[in-house]
Amino acid sequence: MSARWPTEGLAFGGDYNPEQWPEEVWQEDVALMREAGVNLVSVGIFSWGELEPEEGVYRFEWLDRVLDLLHENGIGVDLATPSAAPPVWLHLKHPEMLPVDANGLRYTQGSRESWCPSSPVLREHALRIARVLAERYGQHPAVRMWHVSNELACHNGRCYCDVSAAAFRDWLRTRYDDVDALNAAWGTAFWGQRYASFDQVLPPRRTTTIPNPGQRLDFERFSSDAFVDHLAAEAAVLREVAAHLPVTTNYMVMGEFHQLDYAATTPLLDLVANDHYLWAADPDGWAELAFSADRVRGLAGGEPWLVMEHSTSAVNWQPRNLAKNPGQLLRNSLQHVARGADGALFFQWRQSRAGAEKYHSGMVPHAGRDSALFREVVDLGATLGRLAEVRGSVVERARVALLWDTQAWWAAELEAHPTVDVRYLDQARRLHRALLDAGVPVDVLPVSASLDGHDVVLVPTLYLAPDGLADRLRTVAERGGQVVVTYFSGIVDEHDRVLLGGYPGAFRDLLGVRGEEFAPLAEGARVALDDGSVGEVWSERATVTDATVVASFADGPSAGFPAVTRRDVGDGAAWYVATRLDPASTTALLRSVLDAAGVEPLVRDVPAGVEVVRRVGDDAAWLFAINHTDADARIDASGTDLVAGEVHDGGATVPARGVLVLRQDH
Ligand code: GLA
Fold this sequence. Notes:
666 residues, alpha/beta, seven-stranded mixed beta sheet, globular, binds alpha-D-galactopyranose
C-alpha cells in the first residue's frame, strides 16, 4: 500500500449525492461543509443513471459544476466508479446480467447492485464508464482518490445463474485440471456424486438435502474471486488513465458479513477503507466496533486506513433504528481513529428527502443546520481538526495477535456440523472483548500475516487451518511465545475433508492432544470445569499425548476429559481450550497466558468499559482513552488532551461518556 493520503489532516466528510437536490442546495452544502471542516467527500457512487441516461449519451455538466464548486471551496473528492448502480436501460437491454438466487429466482432491477459478478456484459459496461470518468476527471484538481464501486458483494454476493455456472466450471478447471482431482477433493464417492467431466458440474443450487460441502466451499471461493477480479479490472483501468491517484474500495468488515475474502483484495488497493455500522440493539456495540477496527487495521498491514462510512445517528435498515445518544458520535468516530483510521467519513452528507434511505441519518439532517445533530457534526469536525497531527502515525504494535480467516469462516459454517451453536466469530469476539476489558492491546490479523514480534497468538475456532500454520505457531512458542488454540480448529484440509487420526488433525502434535469424539452441549447448557471455570456450547473427548492438563470437565458429556491443556514447547507453550469458556473464565485463562508471556495492560487498572489505545509517530505518541460508561474514570496517564485542550499531569480523568486524546512527547 502506498502512503498517498487524500487529505492534509485527518479526513472528514461523507458520501455526497448532490444529484438528489436542486442546485441552490449545493451552495448551502459547501457553506455548511466549510463550517463543519469537511475536507473529503465521496461523489458519484450511485450516479451512473444520471451520468449516462441512455447508452453512450453522457451528461457530465452537473458533475463538472459539482467538482468545480467543491474545489473552489477547498474540499477534496473521492470519485467513485458507479458500478454499484447500473442504469435501468442496461438492465432492460441485458436482463441476463441480473443475479439469480440458489432457488433459481432471478432478481429484477429496482434497487442497486443487481448484477451477476460473472456477467461479461456488466464488466464491459462498468469498465467503459470507469474509463470515461477517469479520462474526464482524472486530472481534475478536486479529485484525490478513486472509490471503486461500493461495498462489493453486499447484495449480490452469490449468483447461481447459467453464466455463473459456466464461469464456475472454468474456475474449477483451472483449480483441478483433472475432473478426478475434483472428485477426490469433493469426496463425490459419497452419495454417488461422481462427475465424469467438468461440464456436468453446477453451482450449489437448491437441492433436496445437504449439498456437497466441497462444492459449497469452492463456490464461496469462486464467488469471492469474481469480485476480486472485478475490483482488479476497475482498478487497472483507473491506474492506466490516472495513475497518480490512490485507489480504494469500501470494505464491510462489520458484524457477520463475510461474502468477500478481503485478504485477497488488499494487494490491489493503495489504501484500505471500511464501512461500519453499529447494531443498534447491541448495548456493547462499541466493543464490536473496536473488534471491527482492529480487523481492518490487520488487513491494512498496520498502516493507516479510512472509515469510509459510518452513521451520525440512526440507520434505516435494522428492525429498530435507535438514534445515537449525545456524545456517541464523537466516541464512535474517535474509536476508529484510535485504532488506526486517519479520518472518519459518513453515509451521507445530507439526509435524503426521498428514496429508500430517507430515514437514515446524515451529517445535515432533515431539520437542517439548526439542529443538535449538525452542531455535533461541527464539533466533531473541529475535534478532528485539532487531532490533525495524529495523521500518519500508527497504532503501537501489540504483543498479542488474534488470527482470523474468511475461508475458515466459510468452512466453519457449512451445513450439518456437530452443532449450530458454533458461530465462527463468537470465540474471536469473546477473546477480543476480554483483552479489551483488561486493557491489553491486540492485533487482529489475517491468518497469513507474519507473527514475528507477537508473544501471544490466539487461534479461535480456526476450523480450516492453512498448511504450515502449525509450524509457524510452533516457531512462536519455541522462541518463548504462548499459543492458544480453541475448540473446532484445525479439523479439515482445504477441501473440507477431515484430517484423520484424532482431532485436531492440524494441531495434534503442536498441542499434544488427541480427540476421539466431539461432544457438543445441548442448547443453552453449560459445563463445569474442575478449576471453577464454566464452558458453553462445546466439549470433546480428548486425551493428552504430550501435554499437561490445566483443567478437566467436571460434568457434562465429557466429564473427566481434559478441557484446558498446556504443552511446553521450546521456551514457550501451546495451550488447547476444548470448550467455549464463559466471559469470566476467558478472562481468568487469558490472565494466566498473558502472565506467562509477561504481557501487561497498556495502562494499569483501567475500568472495564474504558478503551485505551496508543498511536505512535516520529516525535510523539497519542493515548486515546474512550469512556463508554456513565461514570468518570481515573486513569494513570498524563499529557495534553487534544480534545478539550487541557494538560493532565499525575493522572487524568476521562469524563463519563467522554474521550481524551493525550499527546505524550517522546
Ligand atoms: C452502506 C452503503 C451506503 C448506504 C449505507 C446505509 O454502507 O454503502 O450506500 O446504503 O449502507 O447504512
